[in-house]
Specification:
3 domains, Glutamine Phosphoribosylpyrophosphate, subunit 1, domain 1, Rossmann fold, 24 helices, 6-stranded antiparallel β-sheet, alpha/beta
């Protein structure tokens, strides 16, 4: 993991712009606390902040092959770099380091942009090829690592995060209505970057920049294929893939751990990692997040039937992990400084509030013990785990299923702004576009056809927002989080299994449960899906109300939120605040914090 940035300009000599490139690079310091580097050619400048994971002394960047006149900045991990290095050596390449970065660079020298098709991992990297004066930007298939670019009149700016681009005076900190719609509608449109003029390198894509402009092509996307394996073979294949994926993703030259929530997904990764590390005499480390009094005072709701802590304890005992619970109190969760850090890490406000804050605090605590963490993120999208996958009303609704499953809509927006925003219309258009992109098998009809659509929507839209959240909160504290369930081999295989097979035991995530049941305590095997936890402590809600009162009536956030509606909600007893009102509090505070931090120009017309 690292932070990358750069600038290509065909009309100027960038040697005189070192200070600007340094500033852009410094915005990525949290992503790469271990080292910093800048490389400048006449028309290209590359900046890098390093988080050292593999080959600690040898992986310095930017990395250059001077004889070939090619330089690269790279963020992420290539899990099959050992095999690729062996192949490249057979083809005559010689290596100075043991890093995966050098393997990817030599892979480009051998195969050009087609190197992307050979990589297994999570990555975002940029290569300046001075032989043809071309910048090549490549992003991993699932979009695990973020990557943005901003075309200019004579080239491009790029970075792991928008903040690196916005540090260059050629960019403008402007957000138009479509950017606001992305923020308020909880829709992750591929390629959209919130900031006007900025684009996202789409997952599975190569973007090249030359004197003729910007060009993009896709090297990977989900295809519809006939699945011919029976259930027994499919379960065995899933297990075989998971064993290989976890083995690859445990490779690191720094301390590793796993994130454990007590759900099926994270427990499976913990158990598989525990077995593999145990075989070499090492115990797996595990970490979980909890809230003061959550287990003792837990109240079941529509999303969460049980608290996490008892299941976490069961798994830790069963696996024999070195476990640590990170327990957060409402005062820490509501600390405005923590909100500032999470909003700053995101570059835009999503309004998840305590779920962002707790994830940041969890990662910050873990960073004191480990540098790499494996996560169960994305298993629900891959295997069909969310409650709405199994709700006929949500499945058959003419919109994204997760939108149909939302119990209430936003209630605190200013009427004029809400009307102009037209979030419902934006979601409607986005859904139509997404649905048209779903690949189908000839002759597939009925529920199987619809569930292929539902799975595709989750794997190309919903999961990307969650992956972005995971990346931003972890890299804000210099922690690398790996996501085994996003291995493209597993995603492709499970995506093409029939829905009847994904639910063959009558429950959610049948294939994952069957593939890993032998490694887990019975309590977890039988547990019903429970999302990432959110505090139920009324003191947290009261703190949100207090902070909103402190904003004052002239704060620019009230151009978007209705003062009277917010005031009425603030007058309610904290225990009587509805989930929709609480969500509105979180959104308003996140937005207010963002406006104070970034000072964006909002184009509201």
């Amino acid at each position: 993991m690292c932070g990358i940035t750069g600038w290509v300009s065909y009309r100027r000599d960038l040697a005189g712009d070192r200070q600007t490139v340094d500033t852009m690079t410094e915005t990525m310091a949290c992503r790469g606390p271990d080292a910093s580097g800048v490389w400048i050619d006449t028309h290209a400048a590359l900046g890098h902040r390093r988080l050292s994971i593999i080959d600690l002394p040898g992986g310095a960047q930017p990395m250059e092959e001077s004889a070939a006149r090619v330089a690269m900045v790279y963020s992420g991990e290539t899990y099959n770099f050992t095999e690729l290095r062996d192949e490249l050596r057979r083809r005559g390449h010689r290596f100075r380091t043991e890093s995966d970065t050098e393997v990817v660079l030599h892979g480009y020298l051998e195969w050009g942009v087609a190197v992307a098709e050979r990589l297994n991992g999570m990555y975002a990297f940029a290569i300046w090829d001075s032989r043809i004066e071309t910048l090549v930007m490549i992003r991993d298939r699932m979009g695990i690592k973020p990557f943005y670019y901003y075309p200019t009149v004579d080239g491009v700016l790029f970075g792991s995060e928008p903040k690196a681009i916005l540090a260059n005076p050629l960019s403008e900190s402007v957000v138009d209505m479509d950017g606001l719609r992305e923020m308020f509608a909880f829709v992750k449109t591929p390629g959209h970057a919130i900031w006007s003029g900025m684009r996202e390198v789409q997952p599975g894509s190569v973007v090249t920049v030359d004197r003729n402009g910007v060009h993009e092509h896709t090297y990977w996307s989900l295809d519809a294929r006939e699945h011919t394996d029976d259930v027994e073979t499919t379960v065995a294949t899933v297990r075989e893939l998971l064993d290989d994926i976890v083995r690859r993703q445990l490779v690191a030259d720094v301390p590793r751990c796993v994130l454990l929530s007590g759900g099926l997904d994270s427990s499976a990764i913990t158990a598989l990692a525990g077995r593999q590390l145990g075989a070499v005499g090492e115990k797996v480390r595990s970490f979980s997040v909890d809230f003061t009094g959550q287990t003792e005072n837990f109240v079941p709701d529509d999303l969460r039937a049980t608290p996490d802590a008892p299941y976490v304890a069961d798994v830790a005992r069963h696996v024999g992990s070195e476990h640590r619970d990170i327990v957060l109190d409402p005062g820490t969760l509501a600390d405005p400084e923590i909100r500032r850090r999470t909003v700053a890490a995101r570059d835009f406000p999503l309004g998840l509030g305590d779920m962002d804050n707790s994830l940041y605090l969890l990662f910050r605590s873990i960073r004191g013990h480990s540098t790499v963490a494996l996560s169960g993120e994305s298993a629900d999208e891959v295997f069909g785990g969310y409650k709405w996958f199994h709700d006929p009303v949500a499945v058959n609704a003419p919109t994204f299923p997760w939108m149909a499953a939302r119990p209430e809509s936003e209630t605190l927006l200013a009427e004029d702004f809400a009307g102009h925003l037209d979030a419902d219309g934006y979601v409607r258009d986005s859904y139509a576009t997404a649905l048209a992109q779903v690949p189908q098998l000839d002759g597939q009809t009925g529920l199987e056809r619809r569930m292929r659509e539902v799975c595709h929507l989750h794997l190309t839209r919903f999961v990307r927002a969650l992956l972005d959240r995971k990346d931003r909160m972890s890299m804000a504290v210099g922690l690398e989080v790996r996501v085994p369930f996003c291995d493209h081999r597993l995603v492709e295989y499970v995506y093409n299994t029939p829905w009847s097979m994904k639910t063959f035991d009558g429950r959610e995530k049948s294939l994952l449960r069957a593939a890993t049941a032998d490694t887990l305590p019975r309590s977890v095997v039988e547990r019903v899906k429970s999302p990432y936890p959110s505090t139920q402590d009324v003191r947290y809600v009261a703190a949100l109300q207090d902070q909103l009162r402190e904003l004052g009536p002239d704060h620019p956030v009230f151009e978007l939120f209705d003062r009277a509606r917010v005031g009425a909600a603030l007058g309610a007893d904290a225990a009587a605040v509805t989930p929709a009102q609480r969500a509105g509090f979180e959104k308003a505070l996140d937005l207010a914090t963002w406006l104070d931090l970034r000072r964006p120009v909002l184009k509201l017309s």
